[in-house]
Amino acid sequence: MIGRLSGILIQKQAPFLMIDVHGVGYEVQAPMSTFYNLPELDKPLVLLIHMVVREDAQLLYGFYSESERRLFKSLIKVNGVGPKLGLTILSGISADEFVQVVKNNDETGLVRLPGIGKKTAQRLIVEMKDRLDDWQDESEAGLDKSTTASDNLNPGQDIIKEATSALIALGYKPVEASKMISKLDKQNQSSESLIKQALKNTVR
What we know:
Blueprint: E1 4-13, E2 16-21, E3 24-29, H1 32-35, E4 44-53, E5 58-63, H2 66-75, H3 83-92, H4 95-103, H5 107-111, H6 118-129, H7 157-169, H8 174-182, H9 191-202
Antiparallel strand pairs: 1-2, 1-4, 2-3, 4-5
Helix pairs in contact: 4-6, 7-8, 7-9
């Protein structure tokens, strides 16, 4: 099983990215919390990996910190929560914020996330609470924050399109995703910063 990848970032289009490891390109899916910390293309990258093996595919999920990976592995054990929804949760709320929401029995905080209805929120709170009793903030490991993507890119249709596509991939409807992006100031923004702002506005 693959638990860690170290190589060169050669592609990124949320939620997918590709890492070149000695000439082999590994396609990885990652939450937006990891995308916010990605370096520029053709730069070194280290990700912690959770591998899911199915009959028809071998899927890799990458994370910036061990706390993210640990939470993801716990989430996908909950009935009705698959890897896609797990990524959506980690894209819309930090690991530590999720823990507080669960411990506070805050259904509303979960229902704000795409793909989570009231029943799913209740199930998450019930099934996750015991698993999070010993949760402690863990120091982030993996990426060098000094090499994160620049937030000072010129605005353009490509950046808006990338941000909108990422929100759709996370579970938002196309019209809803476009509306979320349209409300933002797009001057001097990267697609990652637009996505981050859109998600932050949604969960307020």
